[in-house]
Design brief:
Helix content of chain A: 55-70%
Largest sheet of chain A: 2 strands, antiparallel
Helix content of chain B: 55-70%
Shape of chain B: globular
Oligomer: heterodimer
Order of helices and strands of chain B: HHHHHHH
Number of domains of chain A: 1
């Protein structure tokens, strides 16, 4: 089973890196080699395999394969960028652990099992919250992250358990359906740190390296969102029950996240916080997809999730490039950055086009479709315009980059590659010196590569739209037909009012 | 097995699970609280009818003991203390009894359930006991214990609604329980490594200097 190979490889290298924790060099090497092997293992996944395990099981799909290939690639890019930028070296091991959890979550057929793995995957993140020298403060952030992950997991476990049984003898009030749906939607919102559940995510940006942030707050929760979409389409949508009140709450979370996160990102003075809120804003669109309760949203939502993970990772790579190139993440200190690092300017341009898009671009059309399915009338136009608000913080970053530098902190050529003549008598010293003098160039290059990957994903490359439109993992082959259930046809408890 | 005997055994396990949770939530001695938590976590997979497949049950039990052992290691030292209950154990007992009655009475939550009603009762009891530590806990171990109680409660409710989980789900649950224990233990050890013997949370959030010479000045380049 090709998916299990991927999972075993990822966990093995993550474990190896953890075992080598006391020795930075081998630990870093194990993490990076593991990510390279993970890319290969993801490419080798056969998207039509089924393993039946006593009624439960695992099935691979084209979407799962594409998610893992893109996830492994951005994980590798961010690991290299983090290494060059001086970030913490346990981040690659955490990325590998989360990738393994993502693979299993997307491959498990039973949502009750999938939410367990998605919750376990969220726990890997605590490792990067620990800060040597200020461990108590880091652990405080870590336990808050753990709290968000477990509370969300408990909600998802309860929701999937309520639907995951024979409901033919139903005697429940329709409100119970709404509560189960709301519980799962809130679980997804908590994992993304969507507004108003964003406080733990905001604190996370204070301690977690920027290159690990999209792995923790975008990639890991994204798989839970995919499970939620599949569960909603299979369990909630076919019900002929009025879920408007629960749906309105989910819509409120989505719209608040889209608008308020964009505003928060605009006013932040620290690039890591801009990145953190940009992730929350895009996650708002995922929440919007959960609020549609329409199978038509299945394909655009899953495509948007792919685009979301890759574009936010490429933005993180750009932030790491700025950190490594200018040794600051304070926006006000970045006057003239465009002139001082043209590659980073190109990378930001790619990120902007990939994340905001334009009519005709696959990702833009997917987002537009989600908004129109979730909201009717003029409000849809307002929300669609709201999804373009990231242009404001991108514009601010660009404006400060185009302004005249107020001080010279780096020579104008600092971004260029520097290659000294190789010294065959001291290769290690030469390679170490070359690596040190090319940190800015390395991070900028990674930012461009990931920006190009993001743009390609947004444009529908890698057969993304076809993969996103595919069926969820199933053991029965061509998908399960869910017949509508009308609680009104079932015997109601005495004194209850039918829907 | 005789149904009456099986029912009595399930009731005893449910009682042990809730008593363990009360101890875990209210004890001020860290290792006493962890001991209570282990009783609860060991009882959770057994509170099912039929019992899980033996290998799956073994995995759950090993995971519960492993999680408890990791926390036990994190709390090494003499008289290491945790927050304990703010309202006292008698209040916790009444809270657990009230929630358990609600859970038992609403078994199935509107549709026939495939698992035992006692699992629902214990699950509701655990969920109620977890609220205070999770929401108001000011030390890492207490919040961690609250989270483990909450997860155990959710797993019991899942068993009460859907019946005994299949072996694959049991295996994944075991992994999650062990990971949560490990994560809380790592955080608890990190908190204590700063000095002091307690698990109190930091008063202020760490702020990364925006003008630092390194993106994350935590390790040598």
């Amino acid at each position: 089973m090709s998916l299990l190979v991927f999972v075993v490889v990822a966990i093995a290298f993550a474990g190896l890196a953890a075992l080598l924790r006391g020795d930075p060099g081998p630990r870093t090497a194990a993490g990076l080699i593991g990510l390279i092997v993970a890319v290969i293992a993801a490419l080798a996944i056969d998207p039509a395999q089924i393993v039946d395990i006593r009624g439960g099981g695992i099935a691979t799909t084209a979407y799962l394969r594409l998610f893992l290939v893109l996830g492994s690639l951005v994980g590798l890019g961010l690991a290299v960028s983090g290494l060059a930028g001086g970030s913490r070296r346990d981040a690659p091991a955490v990325t590998l652990g989360i990738l393994a959890a993502c693979g299993l979550t997307l491959g498990l057929v039973d949502p009750r099992a999938a939410v367990l793995v998605a919750t376990a995957g969220g726990l890997f993140g605590v490792l990067v919250t620990l800060i040597p020298g200020n461990a108590r403060a880091g652990a405080t952030v870590g336990i808050r992250e753990t709290r968000a992950v477990i509370v969300a997991g408990a909600l998802a476990i309860a929701a999937t358990a309520w639907f995951g049984r024979d409901l033919s003898q139903l005697a429940a009030q329709p409100v119970v359906f709404g509560l189960a749906y709301l519980a799962f939607a809130v679980a997804v919102a908590m994992r993304f740190g969507a507004i108003p559940f964003h406080l733990w995510a905001a604190r996370l940006t204070d301690v977690v390296p920027e290159t690990a942030l999209p792995i923790l707050t975008a990639m890991a929760p994204a798989t839970l969102a995919v499970v939620a979409l599949a569960w909603t389409d299979a369990s909630v949508t076919p019900l002929l029950v009025n879920l408007d009140s629960a749906r309105l709450l989910v819509l409120g979370i989505a719209i608040a996240s889209i608008f308020l996160a964009a505003i928060a990102a605009f006013v932040q003075d620290d690039l890591e916080h801009v990145l953190g809120y940009s992730i929350i804003g895009d996650a708002g669109v995922v929440m919007l997809a959960l609020a549609t309760l329409d199978p038509e949203a299945w394909a655009p939502a899953r495509l948007w999730i792919l685009v979301f993970v890759v574009t936010r990772s490429s933005f993180a790579a750009w932030v790491a490039g700025i950190r490594a190139g200018f040794w600051t993440g304070r926006v006000a200190d970045l006057r003239g950055w465009v002139w001082r690092s043209p590659p980073l300017a190109a990378a930001l341009a790619l990120v902007v086009v990939a994340s905001v898009g334009f009519p005709g671009l696959v990702s833009f059309d997917a987002r537009k479709a989600i908004v129109e399915l979730a909201i009717d009338g003029p409000a849809a136009t307002v929300v669609l315009i709201g999804t373009l608000l990231p242009l404001a913080y991108y514009g601010r970053l660009l404006a400060i980059g185009l302004s005249r530098p107020d001080r010279v902190v780096q020579p104008i050529s600092a971004w260029r590659p520097h290659l000294a003549r190789p010294d065959v008598t001291a290769i290690q010293s030469w390679s170490s010196h070359t690596w040190d003098t090319n940190r800015a160039f390395t991070t900028a290059t990674v930012a461009i590569v990931l920006g190009a990957l993001a743009l390609a994903t947004s444009a529908g490359a890698f057969r993304g739209p076809e993969a996103a439109a595919g069926l969820p993992p199933t053991l029965t082959g061509p998908g399960e037909v869910v017949s509508p259930v009308d609680p009104g046809d079932q015997p109601s408890p005495s004194g209850s009012v039918g829907p | 097995m005789n149904p009456a005997l099986a029912g009595a055994a399930l009731a005893a396990v449910a009682l042990a699970v809730v008593v363990g949770a009360v101890i875990a939530g209210s004890a001020r001695n860290a290792r006493t609280a962890i001991f209570g938590l282990v009783i609860t976590m060991v009882g959770v997979p057994i509170l099912a009818d039929p019992l899980p497949w033996p290998l799956a049950l073994s995995a759950r039990l090993v995971a519960a003991v492993l999680a408890g052992y990791l926390l036990w290691v994190a709390a090494r030292g003499h008289h290491v203390r945790t927050g304990g209950s703010l309202v006292g154990w008698p209040t916790d007992v009444f809270l657990a009894i009230g929630a358990a009655v609600v859970g038992y009475g609403s078994h199935g939550l509107g549709a026939p359930a495939a698992g035992p009603a006692l699992a629902a009762a214990a699950g509701f009891g655990l969920a109620a006991l977890s609220v205070l530590p999770v929401v108001t806990g000011r030390d890492i171990l207490r919040v961690g214990i609250g989270l483990m109680l909450l997860l155990s409660g959710a797993l019991l409710i899942r068993t009460s609604l859907g019946g005994t989980p299949d072996p694959l789900e049991q295996l994944l649950t075991a992994g999650l329980v062990a990971m949560l224990g490990g994560a809380v233990a790592i955080l608890a050890v990190a908190a204590r490594s700063d000095g002091g013997t307690g698990f109190e949370m930091a008063d202020s959030t760490p702020r990364r200097s925006s003008h630092s010479g390194d993106a994350h000045p935590t390790e040598q380049r």
